[in-house]
Amino acid sequence: MNDRYIEITNEEIDFKKLYNFCKEDHLGAVNVFFGVTRNVNNAKKVLYLEYESYKNMAEKIISKIIDEMINKWDIYKVAISHRSGRVDIGQISMVLVISSMHRKSSISATDYFIDRLKEIVPIWKKEFYEDGESWLSSTPG
Amino acid sequence: MNDRYIEITNEEIDFKKLYNFCKEDHLGAVNVFFGVTRNVNNAKKVLYLEYESYKNMAEKIISKIIDEMINKWDIYKVAISHRSGRVDIGQISMVLVISSMHRKSSISATDYFIDRLKEIVPIWKKEFYEDGESWLSSTPG
Amino acid sequence: MFEVKIIFFSILREKLNLREIFIECGENTSIHGVIEILMRKINFEDYDLSKCMIAVNEDYVDDNYLIKNGDEIAIIPPVSGGSDFL
Amino acid sequence: MFEVKIIFFSILREKLNLREIFIECGENTSIHGVIEILMRKINFEDYDLSKCMIAVNEDYVDDNYLIKNGDEIAIIPPVSGGSDFL
Predict the structure, then answer these.
(1) Which residues contact A43 (CB under 8 A, 6 or more apart)?
(2) Phi, psi at residue A122, to the nearest 5°?
(3) Any domain includes C83
(4) Which of A45, A125, B33, C62 has its CA 20 to 30 A from that of C78?
(5) For the CA atoms of D20, D26, D30, D36, what is the dihedral angle to 10 degrees?
(6) How many CB atoms lie within 10 A of CB B129?
(7) Using one digit for the tens of pLDDT, what is the confidence trace for A10-37?
(8) Residues D31, D64 contacting (CB under 8 angstroms)
C-alpha cells in the first residue's frame, strides 16, 4: 500500500522522511502532530520513559485505523512513527503526518487517529521517577 | 509577548525555528499545519503564485486571532509564518505551530486559526497560469 | 480640512494601477463619506467596493468611524491567504 | 489436544515475570476456555484479567473465538501509547 508509511522504531524519529512521504504537488494541506515526552505527569516529575509494543500487531492495527480514516475523510497519505524503548524528556515519541487537499480532513483525521491509538494500538508506556516507576493506562481525554 | 511568534516573510520558512519556539518540556502536544502551494486549482495548472500582504496589519490581526484562541483553548505557545512574494509549486506557504498539554486544544485551535486567517488577515494570493494570472478570493470550506 | 492617505492592495492596486492616494476631507467625515469622495475621484469600473473591508491604522473599522488627521485608511479586498489549503 | 502460545506484555509481563508460555488445550476451546486454563495455571494475584483485550495472530478477537492449532494468543493490558499528549 503506497498510501501509508508505518513504523515502530527504537531510533529518533525522522520527521523529514515522513513529511516527504506524504507531500504531493497537488495537495495543499499537511498536518503534523508531534507527541512529546513530558517532564511531569500527575504532578510527578518524570525522568524518562519507555515504550513497549507488540510491534507487528501495533503496525497492523495502525493500518486498520488508517483504513477507517480513509473511509471517513478525503485524505491522501498518512505516515506515522511511534517510538519504542527509552525516550528522554522533550524527545518526540510519536509523529503523525496526514496530507489532503483541504485542511479540514487532515485535521479531523489527526484527532481521530489519536483517539483510536489510545484505545486499541498495543503500545504501553512506563514512566520512571526518582522514587520508582509505573505503567500508564490511557486516560480518557 | 513571549507566547507567540509571528512573521510574514519573503524567505523560505524555517520550520525548526517555529517548532523550537513552541516546544517546552512540560508540554505533550505540538500540532503543526503546513500549507503547501498546489500545482492545480479549479482544474487549472498553476505555475507559481505570489502572496501580497499588508504586512504590519496582517501581523497585528494574526496576534488578535491568537488572543481569541488563547481565550477559547488551553494552548501554550503559537508560532506562525506566512510567505509573501513568489512561492513555487510544492513549497510551503504557511506554517502554524501550536503547543499544548493536551492534543485536543492544539488541534482545535489549528482549525480555528485557519478559518480566521481566511476571513480577516490581509494577505492575498495571485496565481500564475500558462495563459494568464488571477487574484484569488477565499472560498468557504 | 485635512489630508488622509488611502492605500490599495492586490486586485484593486493592480486594477487602478495605484498604490496610494491622498484625499482632502473635513472634520467629522466618516468612512462612508471618504468612500463617497473616493468614488467621485476614481473610476472603479465594475469593481464593487462594498465587498471590501476598511482598516484605519491597521485595524478594521465600520462605516461610521470618523477619520482623524493622519489616519492611514486601507481598502481591503476579500483576503485569500490560506486559499491553497481551503 | 494441541499447544498454543500465550504472550504477555507490559505490566502483566513484569508482574508475572513471564514473556510467554505454552498451554495445551483440546479442539473447540474458546478464548474463554483458554483464560480459565490460564487462571488455574498462573497466579495473577490481584490483577484483573477482564480489563485486558485478547488478540489471536495479531488481531483482536472476542471470548467466543475458537482457537486453532498454532494460534498465537496475546493478552493485551489497557494500552497507553499516546498518553503523553492525552
Answers:
(1) none
(2) -75, 75
(3) no
(4) B33
(5) -60
(6) 13
(7) 999 999 999 999 999 888 999 999 999 9
(8) yes
Task: Return the CATH number at C10.
Answer: 3.10.20.30
**Which residues touch A69 (CB under 8 Å, ≥6 apart)?**
A75, A78, A98, A109, A112, A113
* D82 domain-assigned: no
Summarize pLDDT for B79-132 with one digit per residue, the tens.
999 999 999 999 999 999 999 998 999 999 999 999 999 999 999 999 999 999
Q: Which cell numbers hold the place of A132?
A: 520508582
The cell numbers describing A57, all together, are 500487531
- Chain A interface includes D59 (CB < 8 A): yes
- Residue B15 · residue A20 · CB < 8 Å: no
**Residue A97 backbone zone (phi > 0: left; psi -120 to 50: alpha; other: beta):** beta
In this structure, is residue D81 part of a structural domain? no
Question: Who contacts A76 (Cβ-Cβ below 8 Å, separation ≥6)?
Answer: A3, A22, A24, A27, A99, A100, A101
Q: Is B21 on the interface with A (CB under 8 A)?
A: no
Among D59, D79, D86, the residue with its CB nearest the CB of A124 is D79
Left (φ > 0), alpha (ψ -120 to 50) or beta: where does A17 sit?
alpha
- Residue with grid cell 500500500, as numbered in its chain: A1
pLDDT of B42 reads 83
0.90 exceeded by the pTM?
Answer: yes
pLDDT attached to residue A43? 85
Count of domains forming chain C: 1
How far the first Cα of chain C sits from its last, in Å, is 45
User: Which positions in chain B touch A28 (Cβ < 8 Å)?
Assistant: 35-38
| Residue A89: alpha-carbon gap to chain centroid | 16
* Interval D9-28 mean pLDDT: 94
Arithmetic mean of pLDDT, A87-108? 95
Radius of gyration of chain B (CA): 15
- pLDDT of the residue at A141: 33
Q: Would residue C26 count as lying in a domain? A: yes
Domains (range + CATH), chain A: 4-133 (3.90.1170.40)
Whole-angstrom distance, CA of residue A26 vs CA of residue D70: 47
Chains with 3+ CB–CB pairs under 8 A to D are A, B
Please check whether residue B105 is in contact with residue B75, taking contact to mean a CB–CB distance below 8 angstroms.
yes
Nearest CA in chain B to C55: B57
